[in-house]
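User: I've been trying to design a sequence by hand for this structure and keep getting stuck. Would you show me what you'd pick, starting by listing the structure so we're on the same page?

Assistant: Good idea, let's start from the same input. This is the structure you sent:
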């Protein structure tokens, strides 16, 4: 960690805890700041706050008293999920107190180079692929950011021999000032988080901030399948490295079933371990970064042909008696399930779907599930899903939950077929979150494997 004096004896307010807030508070305290943490949770149910108190850091919990801003703070470090309309944030900005997110702090203290990855879809898979490939190639890559490892905590421990591979959300990027990655990746931009950003234009502007401090010695890896990103790429100072599945570009591309980087053949598309067109795009982005970092083709191939996916995101679990299992519990909406389905042959696929009923229908799924081998439905939306399956004359079976659905699918599946959990619904009718839902599926897979 760079021992910067920027925050020494400065009063800093950390607004909102969770992992990133707690990490920022500790780092700032280590840098000599006079830290106050404010979190809405009551102290008794707030372990992070209790830990900070034990380390001598001031904590005000159980609410957000706006009058706290009357103290002479030099900086606010805001939890990314807290909107800018929050009264505490509004007052800070009225008083001209800079408001940053924790990734800005990570940048300021990092001795390591930073590779930043953002986009609407594919961020986590691409981030993980890049880190795995760099490590396979002998570099020391550290996952950080929105992927679950607080950026400032990782940056604090990283050395100049490391590389931080940092997943970045639009929320985090809104709170940067000097943040500058050596390589930035934009996987794609679709419509998302409009409740937070207000409109699509604001959302896209937040994503585009990833490159705003980059110089002509830096690289921007960007999806040329999207016209809007192609046009935006004309506005950056960084060197643009495009990737595309539609045409040959001066970067990474797929052509006639083969993947190239600047005319150099890397591997066949069919060799990729993750199914789906979207995962070809993710692989191309990762290849571009790896080649920029000097990683060998063999290291790239080793990872891309064996990568089993990020947990709960089209994660390949393995096969039992020739039947393959994929865990895509993260698919909490129809669009995510449509993307998952695009990677498989429907006539060999058993889809496990269902969950919380939010009042929507599933007609949008109809083109994507035609000719499915079968569906196993569960949860509150089981009747709705069963109805559209029956319209298409798809074999459909109802099951109690994800665990029983996995077993029922396996009982009906044949050699060479695939069982895919991609629910198209939130989990909250039966499970606290999609992770626990996915874990139940994994546990049932493991049980079945032991029984055979």
């Amino acid at each position: 960690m760079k021992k910067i004096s920027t925050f020494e004896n400065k009063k800093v307010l950390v607004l909102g805890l969770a992992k990133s807030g707690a990490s920022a508070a500790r780092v700032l305290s280590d840098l000599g700041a006079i830290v106050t943490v404010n979190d809405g949770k009551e102290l008794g149910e707030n372990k992070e706050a209790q830990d900070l108190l034990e380390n001598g850091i001031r904590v005000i919990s159980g609410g957000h008293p706006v009058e706290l801003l009357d103290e002479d703070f030099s900086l606010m470090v805001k939890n990314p999920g807290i909107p800018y309309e929050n009264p505490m944030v509004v007052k800070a900005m009225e008083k001209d107190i800079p408001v940053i997110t924790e990734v800005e702090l990570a940048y300021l203290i990092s001795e390591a180079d930073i590779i930043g990855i953002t986009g609407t879809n594919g961020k986590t898979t691409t981030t993980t692929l890049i880190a795995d490939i760099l490590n396979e190639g002998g570099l020391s890559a550290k996952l950080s950011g929105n992927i679950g490892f607080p950026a400032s905590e990782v940056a604090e421990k990283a050395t100049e021999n490391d590389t931080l591979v940092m997943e970045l959300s639009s929320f985090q990027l809104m709170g940067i000032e000097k943040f500058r990655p050596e390589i930035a990746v934009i996987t794609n931009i679709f419509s998302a988080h409009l409740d937070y950003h207000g409109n699509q234009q604001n959302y896209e502007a937040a994503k585009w901030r990833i490159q705003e401090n980059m110089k002509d010695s830096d690289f921007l890896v960007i999806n040329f399948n999207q016209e809007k990103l192609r046009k935006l790429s004309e506005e950056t100072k960084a060197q643009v490295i495009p990737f595309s599945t539609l045409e040959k570009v001066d970067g990474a591309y797929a052509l006639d079933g083969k993947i190239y980087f600047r005319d150099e053949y890397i591997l066949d598309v069919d060799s990729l371990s993750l199914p789906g067109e979207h995962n070809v795009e993710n692989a191309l982005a990762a290849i571009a970064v790896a080649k920029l970092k000097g990683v060998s083709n063999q290291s790239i191939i080793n990872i891309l042909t064996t990568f089993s996916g990020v947990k709960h995101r089209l994660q390949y679990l393995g096969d039992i008696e020739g039947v393959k299992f994929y865990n895509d519990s993260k698919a909490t909406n129809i669009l995510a399930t449509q993307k998952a389905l695009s990677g498989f042959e429907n006539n060999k696929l058993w889809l496990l779907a269902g969950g919380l009923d939010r009042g929507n229908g599933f007609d949008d799924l109809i083109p994507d599930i035609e000719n499915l081998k079968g569906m196993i439905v569960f949860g509150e939306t089981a009747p709705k899903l069963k109805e559209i399956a029956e319209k298409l004359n798809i074999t459909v079976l109802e099951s109690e939950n994800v665990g029983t659905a996995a077993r029922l699918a396996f009982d009906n599946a044949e050699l060479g077929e695939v069982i895919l959990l991609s629910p198209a619904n939130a989990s909250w009718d039966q499970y606290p979150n999609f992770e626990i839902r996915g874990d139940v599926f994994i546990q049932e897979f493991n049980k079945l494997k032991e029984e055979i």
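That's my pick for every position. To get oriented when you compare it with your attempt: Residues 434-451 form the longest helix (18 residues). The radius of gyration is 23 Å.
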